[in-house]
Amino acid sequence: MAPIPKTQKAIVINEPRGELLYKEIPVPTPENDELLVHIQYSGACHSDLHAWKADWPFQTPFPLIGGHEGAGVVVAKGDAVRNFNIGDRVGIKWVNSTCLDCRFCLQGADGNCPKATYSGFTHDGTFQQYGTVKAAHAARIPDGVDLAMVAPILCAGITVYKALKRSDAKPGDNVVITGAGGGLGSLAVQYAKAMGFRVIGIDSGEAKKKLVLSTGGEAFIDFKTDDIVKGVLAATDGEGAQAVVHVAVSEKAVETSLEYIRPTGTIVLVGLPADAVVHSPVFSHVLRTITIRGSLVGNREDTVEALDFVRRGLVSTPIKIVGMSEIAHVYDLMEKGQIAGRYVLDTSK
Ligand code: NAD
Ligand code: ZN
Questions:
Q1: What is the per-residue pLDDT for 60?
Q2: In this predicted structure, what is the pLDDT of residue 58?
Q3: Where does the UniProt annotation place the signal sequence (predicted)?
Q4: What domain range is 108 assigned to?
Q5: Atom 11 (ligand 1) nearest CA
Q6: Are residues 35 and 98 in the same domain?
Q7: Residues 142 and 56 in one domain
Q8: Which residues of the chain fall short of a pLDDT of 50?
């Protein structure tokens, strides 16, 4: 294995919407319980774009190294690490570390641990060539799986798999995915099909329609040109969808789903549009007995399960690979909703 360099390339941001600086920075040293990972590929998630824009009601810590869908190889580890060896293939996900000891950790609610750190947000992320991760939270990447293709599973895949589980849908149920042609959505369509659900995708444009219908969607509704409620009712024999997973970055999408959710159904909120609010009239909410719930990434167990769908060939990320230095272009396309599937950054360029 090549020696670990002292410095590396990374994308650094110093302020909200600040320049995405492609620059040389030091290679970090792993703590006692951490791995140092040579990150070869990183997915670019819409959450990274939100963080760059400081969209959320959090104090985004700057300077920021974004990215939380990293795939690479272990090149060094702290003395306390027993579960990984040098040379192992490994993934870095959104939850970089937790205390492993609080009630949330014990219940498998990793993202809710008050001491959790997040890759690309409160812990330097995967838009760099070498990054650190607590070994207990590193994901083991199955043999034979392509590192670039698998990178987006580390956030997008785990998140939609968990959200689908939390939708309480049963095999044969109609499940709507909003944002179905984007990064999370294109994986949600495949996981939903593999889990036995009947998938209706909502997004816009020919490229996304083609992607959704060729990867397991039974129907596609264009949110810009079609009547969404009519479309869902037509695809579900007039009953409505038993579950909806919202990965669209849109408050309106959530509001519209209140009109096509089937009585007893569940609406799962995943997308995080800035300042969005849900207004669900109490009377109809109760009478139709609907559930609206949030879903935050997934835990370590969800990670193992989500990666196993990929190992078995049931799910594969539709990716486009570009150099990490081209991140500004990727954010521009993402902001305009012009990405079908996921862009993956090659950290060597
Ligand atoms: P993306 O930009 O790749 O995809 C979003 C898709 O939504 C696009 O294809 C866009 O065309 C579509 N869209 C926009 N408005 C729509 C509407 N009204 N109806 C239907 N589709 C619409 O983004 P992504 O990387 O897939 O991320 C999606 C969202 O999920 C982001 O807000 C991100 O922050 C969030 N996210 C949440 C979690 C979590 O744990 N809850 C994890 C990861 C990402
Ligand atoms: Zn993400």
A1: 81
A2: 83
A3: none
A4: 7-155+298-346
A5: 337
A6: yes
A7: yes
A8: none
